Amino acid sequence: MHTEQEVRELAREEWPEQLLEIPQVPKKLWVRGALPPPGTKLLTVVGSRAITRYGQEACESLISGLAGYPISIVSGFALGMDACAHRAALSAGLHTIAIPGSGLDDLVISPRTNFALVKDILESGGAFISEQEPMHKPHLYEFPSRNRLMVGLSHAIMIVEAGQKSGTLITARLASEYNRDLLCIPHRIGDPHAFGPHLFIRLGAALVTEPLHILEALGIAPRESPATEAPTDLEDVELAVWNALEEPKTRDELLRASTSLSISADKSASTGEILTALVSLELRGLIKEEFGAWRRT
Length: 297
Description:
By secondary structure, this protein is an alpha/beta fold. It is built from ten helices and 13 strands. It has helices at 53-64, 81-91, 115-123, 143-153, 168-177, 195-202, 211-218, 236-244, 251-256, 271-283, and strands spanning 8-9, 30-33, 41-46, 71-75, 95-98, 127-130, 156-159, 181-184, 206-207, 262-264, 267-268, 287-290, 293-296.
């Protein structure tokens, strides 16, 4: 399997400006795919490779709540939490940046278990970044250096899970050294995956339990609550779509929910009817699509 888009060296003027602030600025950067638009806030999400159900659900829930905002999710393309963060970003219609420990050519990009995710990220408009030559094979001792790129690129770092010997602790330490906001998700008392988040919360990291906390850390003002009263002249399917958009949703989320969009007691909206309703509501200025999510205006 060969994925699209060539690897190219990233011109210095294209580098995220925050990356130029770190002590050990990389000599070169290679990129594959598209970087996010100017003004996008970058949030690095890290955690255990041995991801728990709780960690996965927390990651997916928080990232889905960022849909529609100018945010790119950065992670290391590793198994477990990294892959979960990238997939959650894709599901929410957010841009995502993967920073593997290898070069970016198809023959070496690692881990191979996540290779199918390469195509998904590139087709969504996301990017891969590495300071390694395109054909460079990964080495375990190089991963702390990769972590500094993840921290240096970002405006804030969110730790979902981290055991006592987790490499995520290195990332958290770098966040402090690079003056980046550190966000941590709380866990149950006694859970070994809680060691890192609870340690850094005690040391002053921001506790995160909802998307609003992430928006605050990134300096993004939450949008005002949209109108709650539906216009009285909506057709049946339009009304069903309007009601479904009580919270922002991507087009795919709306289509997946088609069976629950009831027109009457015994009939659900079809895919075609939902798409037609979206166009109609948008033309009337009642909804709009922004950063991959449909929302009421």
